[in-house]
Design a protein that fits this description.
Elements (H helix, E strand, L loop, with lengths): L1 H4 L3 E3 L2 E3 L3 E3 L15 H12 L4 E3 L3 E2 L11 E2 L5 H14 L3 E7 L12 E2 L13 E2 L2 H20 L4 E6 L4 H6 L14 H4 L1 H14 L5 E6 L10 H14 L3 E5 L27 H10 L4 E4 L5 H9 L5 E4 L1 H5 L3 H7 L14 H5 L20
Parallel strand pairs: 3-4, 3-14, 4-7, 5-6, 5-7, 7-10, 8-9, 10-11, 11-12, 12-13, 13-14
Antiparallel strand pairs: 1-2
The structure holds flavin mononucleotide.
Length: 373
């Protein structure tokens, strides 16, 4: 079974050297304007060197208003393309493949002035309400995704991923928890998925049929009145009909709290190898033909093997374990198959969000991880 995990897997024209994915991870390594730095390029090269078959970049904003945080990568300007070419070439030279994640932070935009969602809501008690996007703004957002997608292809990426999860703009439109609109973008599921469909179709027409498009989507929001597994299945079926190449299944929104957010903290004292969205993945797998990537909670090769054996998903995505151990997959393949050293404490956010680098503080003696677990 371990052999199957380390065999190549195809998503359309994209060939991954194995079934492991580095799930999109904001690295906090771009310069203030959002351009790739040499350190970010080295980070991708290191992952490819260490047998990560498919790297999904950190979320890249498609327009300034959709920027979530400082040191985030930009997909909103043509200047990005030349540096992307360097990064993608470094990954390809090491046998890896790399997909650009495109995002709009919506109501969670880093600049409260720009924050805009399907409807007004407060992203935190400290902030005011975000405003509700008007039709003209929605059209601009669709166009921004399409322009960013065109750039992604020029930059040498093997595909792109539309971030439709975690309470960012597209997820907000999908979710009845945030979306209280009464026009054609709100109300029924058909209306709530309209923005995602419009973005998908605009992106497809920008990149052509031979460029893989993936979507990362919530299995459910884990809040009362939120997006549900049944709705997720419906949306994925519709995207499959429209020609989507693969789905990555995630879950949760910030309001779901620390145990149900997209970056869950484990219950105190628990052995943390719970696959967060396993039952939803099995449900999707039984319905869809397109490849399914599953992220969240996988911490051992034995669990990855079990997921493959049970045909729960086609590829296994990891995020926090690869921050602590960029060489994890090489270790699992050739050396020892003990579990990931990651203890799922989220201490990695501290350096990343403050521009101090992309690393696990527990792994470094120059930082501590007090109070994070
Ligand atoms: C530091 C950090 C940055 C993240 N950045 C992104 C991102 O840019 N885009 C995204 O879709 N998810 C992002 N995530 C969520 C992960 O991709 C993943 O869904 C989540 O961490 C669960 O997987 P894990 O249990 O393997 O860590 C981030 C998570 C962490 C810890």
């Amino acid at each position: 079974m371990k052999d199957i995990l380390f065999e190549p897997f195809e998503i359309g024209t994209l060939v991954s050297g194995n079934r492991f994915v580095r799930s999109a991870t904001h690295e906090g390594l771009s310069d203030p304007s959002g351009l790739y730095t040499p350190e970010l390029i080295r980070t991708y090269a290191e992952l490819a060197e260490n047998e990560v078959g498919l790297i999904i970049t950190g979320h890249s904003f498609v327009s300034e208003e959709g920027r979530a945080s400082k040191f985030q990568s930009s997909a909103a300007c043509d200047d990005a393309v030349e540096l992307w070419k360097v990064a993608t070439e470094q990954v390809h030279r090491r046998g890896g493949s790399i997909v650009l994640q495109l995002a709009h932070a919506g109501g969670f935009s880093g600049d409260p002035e720009h924050a805009m969602g399907p409807s007004e809501f407060r992203s935190s008690p400290k902030r005011g309400f975000c405003r509700s996007a008007c039709r003209g703004e929605i059209q601009k957002i669709v166009d921004a995704f399409a322009s960013a997608a065109r750039r992604a292809r020029l930059g040498g990426f093997d595909g792109l991923q539309i971030h439709a999860a975690h309470g960012y703009l597209i997820s907000e439109f999908l979710s009845p928890f945030y979306n209280k609109r009464t026009d054609e973008y709100g109300g029924s599921l058909e209306n709530r998925m309209r923005l995602l469909k419009e973005i998908f179709l605009a992106v497809r027409s920008a990149v052509g049929n031979d460029f893989p498009i993936l979507v990362k989507i919530n299995s459910e929001d884990f809040v009362e009145g939120g997006f549900s597994v049944a709705e997720c299945v419906e949306v994925c079926r519709e995207l499959e009909r429209l020609g989507l190449d693969a789905v990555e299944l995630s879950g949760g929104i910030p309001e779901a709290g620390p145990r149900r957010s997209p970056v869950r903290l484990p219950e105190k004292g628990s052995v943390d190898d719970t696959v967060y969205y396993e039952s939803a993945a099995c449900r999707l797998k039984a319905t869809l033909r397109l490849p399914l990537l599953l992220v969240g909670g996988v911490r051992s090769i034995q669990t990855a093997e079990r997921l493959a054996r049970d045909s729960c998903c086609d590829m296994i995505s990891l995020c926090r374990p690869l921050i602590r151990e960029p060489g994890l997959l090489r270790r699992w393949h050739y050396e020892d198959d003990s579990p990931a050293k990651c203890v799922t404490c989220n201490a990695c956010f501290r350096p990343i969000l403050t521009g101090r680098g992309f690393f696990c503080p527990r792994e470094r003696s120059d930082d501590t991880s007090r109070g994070c677990n």
